[in-house]
């Protein structure tokens, strides 16, 4: 299955590509709107600053919006998930495909760094079989959805939204590509979800 | 609650894992990526590759090893050793490292920490601090720098390093640095040393000789820590 990674020039797509290959997908990086528009699944990966990733995504915004309206699935990972939302306390703003801001974590220790257990709160295509599983987080900011799209949270000085699903949009704040067996299952679930979309 | 992490550290020279007295009499113990995969299978939470000859010889760690590690590993890894500026870090992160650890170059030029955090985000920046009797040392411990380790650690945090990798757990370093995760290294010869590091407030402990002798020791250590009430990933 072809997967297109939206190339925004920031972050590190290599490990995400490798993890998708292990999951049986055929990923490639692209800056081409037509490729973004037609892909069976688009992944927005990212680390670091939302502002930088969002700037890199600007040429692809129209294509991402159009595929979402057409019901084609997109997964955001870490900063890629934050990029689905609106303005960030860090500066800049996301694509606004989902409503709500991105805020700095209010935990005593930031970044939220390491393995933490997912609490899956509702039936989730991406997180099926993963309630209680440890996955790897590495972030200082997180989305705070204004609508009821959160499917899982994680405890770190309060609850942090760990995953969202809304129609053709999904986001995970953790790194499935760096979360061992549990992460591989998330990616396999994602591929199955996008096939059925 | 985020789990306490155990992080095997692999010393790499010339693309191979080495052990022995650092900088002399290095003995080849295998391929970095193969060993890393073995640790990952045994429950390592994360890995560190340290290019032990890089600072001395003034060159960057082998990018080919980093690329293979990125393709084959399913847990995060940090690369350190000989990183002297933004472009070294960029090359390593592009090759697939999740984080870079800076040491000497950051002591020489503290603004490097700020620049790295601005460019790549705090989560990608580990500030490694080697200390002897509370004083920062560099170049494998040969150069004392006349700077208190706790003071330098605080400055690195204010410059937005995401984690501090402290080789000296003496005094109460981790507690004082409560705002970012601290990885404790050094002196961790046994399980009780790891527990002591966690007790002192460290979020993670680097393990080297403790598991290189016998990699199966890693899951044993995690079980022991779990039984002792520590929140570790089994």
CATH uppermost class of chain A: Alpha Beta
**And the CATH topology of chain B?**
TIM Barrel
Mean pLDDT of chain B: 87
Topology-level CATH name of chain A: Rossmann fold
What's the quaternary structure here? heterodimer
CATH class of chain B: Alpha Beta
Distance between the termini of chain A: 13 Å
Strand order of the largest sheet of chain A: 2-1-3-4-12-11-10-7
What form of chain B results from the Cα inertia axes?
Answer: globular
SSE class of chain A: alpha/beta
| Continuous helix count of chain B | 11
Number of domains of chain B: 1
What is the structure about, briefly put?
The complex is a heterodimer of chains A (197) and B (234). With 197 residues, chain A is an alpha/beta fold.
Plain-language structure description:
The complex is a heterodimer of chains A (197) and B (234). Chain A has a single domain, classed as Rossmann fold. Chain A contains 6 helices and 12 strands. The model of chain A has no long low-confidence stretch (mean pLDDT 96). With 197 residues, chain A is an alpha/beta fold. Chain B is an alpha/beta fold. An 8-stranded parallel β-barrel of chain B has the order 1-4-5-6-7-10-11-12, surrounded by 6 helices. In chain B, 53% of the residues are buried. At the A-B interface, helix 1, strand 6, strand 8 and helix 6 of A face helix 3 and helix 4 of B.
């Amino acid at each position: 299955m072809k997967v297109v990674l939206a190339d925004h020039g920031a972050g590190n797509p290599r490990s995400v590509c490798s993890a998708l290959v292990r999951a049986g997908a055929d990923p490639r990086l692209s800056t081409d709107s037509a490729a973004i528009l037609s892909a069976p699944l688009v992944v927005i990966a990212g680390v670091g600053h939302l502002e930088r990733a969002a700037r890199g995504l600007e040429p692809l915004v129209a294509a991402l919006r159009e595929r979402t309206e057409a019901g084609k699935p997109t997964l955001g990972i870490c900063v890629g998930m934050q990029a689905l939302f609106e303005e960030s306390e860090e500066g800049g703003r996301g694509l606004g495909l989902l409503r709500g801001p991105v805020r700095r974590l209010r935990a005593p220790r930031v970044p939220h760094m390491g393995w933490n257990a997912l609490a899956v709160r509702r039936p989730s295509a991406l997180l099926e079989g993963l309630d209680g599983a440890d996955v790897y987080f590495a972030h200082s900011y997180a989305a705070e959805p204004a609508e009821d799209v959160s499917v899982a949270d994680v405890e770190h000085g309060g609850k942090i939204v760990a995953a969202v699903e809304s129609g053709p949009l999904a986001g995970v704040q953790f790194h499935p590509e760096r979360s061992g067996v549990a992460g591989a299952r998330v990616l396999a679930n994602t591929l199955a979800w996008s096939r059925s979309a | 609650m985020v789990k306490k992490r155990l992080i095997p550290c692999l010393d790499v020279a010339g693309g191979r894992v080495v052990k022995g007295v650092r900088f002399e009499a290095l003995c080849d113990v295998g391929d970095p990526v193969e060993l890393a995969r073995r640790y990952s299978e045994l429950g390592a939470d994360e890995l560190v590759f340290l290019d032990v000859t890089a600072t001395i010889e003034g060159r960057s760690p082998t990018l080919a090893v980093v690329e293979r590690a990125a393709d084959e590993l399913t847990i995060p890894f940090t690369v350190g050793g000989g990183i002297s500026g933004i472009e070294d870090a960029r090359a390593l992160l592009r090759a697939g490292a999740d984080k870079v650890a800076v040491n000497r170059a950051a002591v020489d030029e503290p603004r490097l920490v700020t620049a790295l955090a601005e460019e790549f985000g705090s989560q990608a920046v580990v500030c490694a601090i080697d200390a002897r009797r509370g004083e920062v040392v560099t170049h494998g411990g040969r150069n004392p720098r006349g700077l208190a380790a706790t003071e330098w650690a605080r400055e690195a945090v204010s410059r937005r390093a995401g984690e501090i990798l402290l080789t000296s757990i003496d005094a109460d370093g981790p507690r004082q640095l409560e705002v970012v995760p601290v990885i404790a290294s050094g002196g961790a010869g046994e399980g009780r040393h790891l527990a002591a590091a966690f007790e002192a407030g460290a979020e993670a402990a680097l393990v080297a000789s403790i598991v290189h002798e016998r990699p199966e020791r890693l899951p044993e250590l995690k079980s022991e820590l779990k039984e002792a009430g520590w929140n570790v990933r089994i």
